[in-house]
Design a protein that fits this description.
single chain; 454 residues; alpha/beta; 5-stranded parallel sheet; 4-stranded antiparallel sheet; 21 helices; 9 strands; 50% helix
Length: 454
């Protein structure tokens, strides 16, 4: 769909937890490190609380991935398990062979024997309990009793509770105070701040294969942050739909307009409109892309906005006539416009040729600024023409880069021997270019990238 348009190898904002896309900002990395420390040092019961969509499941998956090999983890995903069944559920996850008729005492003895054998082998066992706020109080108390299994020096079982804020309410009840007092560490996954979300968006895009400047404008980030309320899942949903809206506009930067379209199209949007009303706007079709396909939406929008009302009423049988009319209109363009297009093409070709030589003769550690990319040749020509009025065109370099079957035009600016000089050059750029958040790149890195793509 829109992935080649933005030079992406895979979807960047899927809501299914994928540890390759774990974002350590917004205090997530610090909490992950603290969890590893608490588990490996036998700290008993640990609690992680966060709102719906704050990233608890991702944190849990990441924790399972990076724990040392000596730590064996099991995952208890059913929060509604009854107290008389929870020990059987844990034994099942540990692959312990027990008769179905085994009573609670028999299960507890078997669990203790297994845990002692793992401890003797230098192993630790940890249980991750998801959606713990949904567990009956009696079940939580039964899990608490498992924390009593220990040797003289070590706990035989570590327990990590992941839950929504309601978990704290449950733990504050008097009948569960013994469990509350066994909790040695409590962590809170707070909402991401706007600056964190800006970093999160570009991080996920880069993890999905994007290498250009930030796609989301500052205004778009602020709007998205406000609507998402700092919740990762909402950020992912809005970012995905915003990219689709930008793709529908055939642009390579997400603006406030596109985020507004995504907000209107989301269940949690502040100005959610009825489906019938949404169908009358070009962005209202985002939510049904999966049903009718992006192509249908683009045809709808393109026909509505690029052709006159007369062309809109033209029947399928007259499509060839419409094409001929468009061709006649294009042929009637002024000679001045044709000359400008020729000049733009000549300038593009000239800068491409100069860049090839420039990349060969300059020192590999030379630093340059990547100021933008374009997947459309005509837009690249227009962008180059615009740059010629803003910065020294002789310091602008271009090269073509194949990515996922799409030819990208990469814009570079300047050549610097010191990083400090390059950073100073960034600050001296016009505001519009500075807002693109230019990247510092070395010629060695660029040449290596070009060789790998050949």
């Amino acid at each position: 769909m829109y992935y080649p348009h933005f030079g992406l190898k895979e979807p960047p904002f899927k809501i299914t937890p994928n540890t390759d896309f774990f974002f350590s900002g917004g205090n997530r990395g610090a909490i992950l490190d603290a969890l590893v420390y608490a588990i490996t040092n036998g700290e008993g019961i640990v609690k992680v609380v966060g709102e719906v969509g704050s990233g608890k499941t991702m944190l849990c998956r990441m924790l399972q991935t990076i724990l040392p090999e000596k730590v064996e983890s099991i995952y208890l995903a059913n929060p509604s398990v009854a107290p008389e069944d929870v020990l059987h559920a844990i034994a099942f996850e540990l692959q312990l062979k027990l008769p179905k008729s085994a009573d609670r005492l028999k299960v507890m003895q078997t669990l203790q024997t297994h845990l002692l054998s793992r401890h003797a082998a230098g192993k630790q066992v940890v249980i991750f309990v998801e959606e713990a706020q949904g567990m009956p109080i009696a079940t939580l108390e039964e899990i608490r009793l498992l924390s009593n299994l220990e040797t003289k020096q070590d706990k035989l079982l570590q327990i990590v509770l992941f839950g929504q804020p309601e978990l704290d309410d449950n733990l504050n009840q008097p009948q569960i105070r013994q469990l509350r007092e066994r909790i040695t560490h409590s962590f809170n996954l707070g909402p991401l701040q706007t600056k964190d979300i800006a970093e999160y968006l570009i991080f996920r895009l880069r993890a999905a294969g994007y290498f250009g400047p930030p796609i989301f404008t500052d205004g778009a980030v602020k709007k998205l942050s406000s609507a998402a309320q700092g919740l990762v899942r909402r950020v992912n949903i809005l970012a995905e739909k915003s990219l689709l809206a930008a793709y529908a506009d055939n642009v390579h930067q997400v603006t406030v307009k596109h985020v507004n379209a995504a907000i209107h199209d989301s269940e949690f949007g502040t100005n959610t409109r009825p489906l019938k009303q949404l169908m009358t706007s070009k962005y209202g079709l985002i939510s049904i892309l999966g049903l009718v396909g992006i192509a249908a939406m683009l045809i709808y929008w393109g026909v509505q906005h690029q052709q006159s009302a007369k062309v809109l009423s033209t029947s399928v049988a007259n499509k060839q006539t419409v094409k001929q009319n468009i061709a006649v209109d294009a042929q009637a363009a002024s000679n001045e416009t044709v000359v400008m297009k020729d000049a733009a093409e000549q300038l593009l070709e000239k800068r491409l040729a100069i860049t090839q030589q420039w990349l060969r003769i300059n020192a590999p550690n030379t630093i340059t600024l990547q100021i933008m990319t374009s997947a459309d040749e005509n837009k690249a020509k227009s962008a180059l023409e615009s740059l010629s009025h803003q910065i020294e065109i002789d310091n602008v370099y271009l090269y073509h880069q194949k990515q996922n079957g799409v030819t990208l035009t990469v814009f570079l600016y300047g050549a610097y021997q010191q990083r400090s000089d390059a950073l100073a050059a960034v600050q001296a750029l016009p505001a519009q270019l500075k807002n693109n958040r230019p990247q510092l790149r070395t010629l060695l890195g660029i040449n290596n990238e070009l060789e790998q793509k050949q």
